[in-house]
Amino acid sequence: MLRPQRFKPQYYPGSTSVAKNRRRHMSNKMDKLRDISNEDLTAILGHRAPWMVYPNTHPPLAEIYEPIDPIREVVEPTPGAAAGDRIRPVEFVDSMYNAPSTPYWRSYHAAINFRGVDIGVESGRQTVEMRERDLEEYAKRVSETEMTDWGLSGMRSVSSQGHSLRLQMDGTMFDMLDRRRLEGGIIVMDKDQGGVPIDRAVNFGKPMTEAEAAKRTTIYRVDNVPFRSDNEVIEHVQRIWELRTEWGFQPKVEDI
Hints:
By secondary structure, this protein is an alpha+beta fold. It has a single domain (17-51, 86-246), classed as Methyl-coenzyme M reductase, gamma subunit (Lambda Exonuclease, Chain A). The protein has eight helices and seven strands, in the order ααααβαββαββββαα. The protein has a four-stranded antiparallel sheet with strand order 2-3-1-4. A hairpin with a 3-residue loop joins strand 2 (118-121) and strand 3. The protein is flat and about 55 Å long. 34% of the residues are buried.
């Protein structure tokens, strides 16, 4: 009988601050920077009113008959799947000017640390789709921690393309629909991710300073932490590139 091996996960190589930040994000051991109430989170997501029950697409799994399947005996459903919740999305954008996270790393974090995740990644934005109550747990986690600086990041399900390249005069990332803004040194959001006004102004606290953002970012930049300054990362990326180019990750390849 094979016994499970014990190992320490190695999420990302490198010794620079960017590499260390990437490992911390992937391990889900991030600093909590703010508190966002469940009601405020539900309001900015915009999928249902904070007082509404979760709409569902099918009855709870415990109440419906399903054919015998050994996989169902092994895999425990997520709370949202067990309740029959509908699938809902959340979309984040991140500035290229030392935002704490990037679309790819948000997706990597979601895939490693959450179940029932469907992910979409583009150059400046990232979408996650999950069962609704599972999605709220994920959104709360990334919204309250160092993974998101609300001055350099935003929750936007429409009109998100290209804005990662633009900063406003006050240093916050541009938003065509003005969903969130800097007021009195505090970031507030008074529209949901789709740009629909909500009945409250959600307070996200102070944005990061330029120095703190440069310290916490997972982005390599020539004017902060250059990619070429970390030989271990370069060797890792080069090795992956060689395997993909020469072999396409074919299972028959030896000595990977």
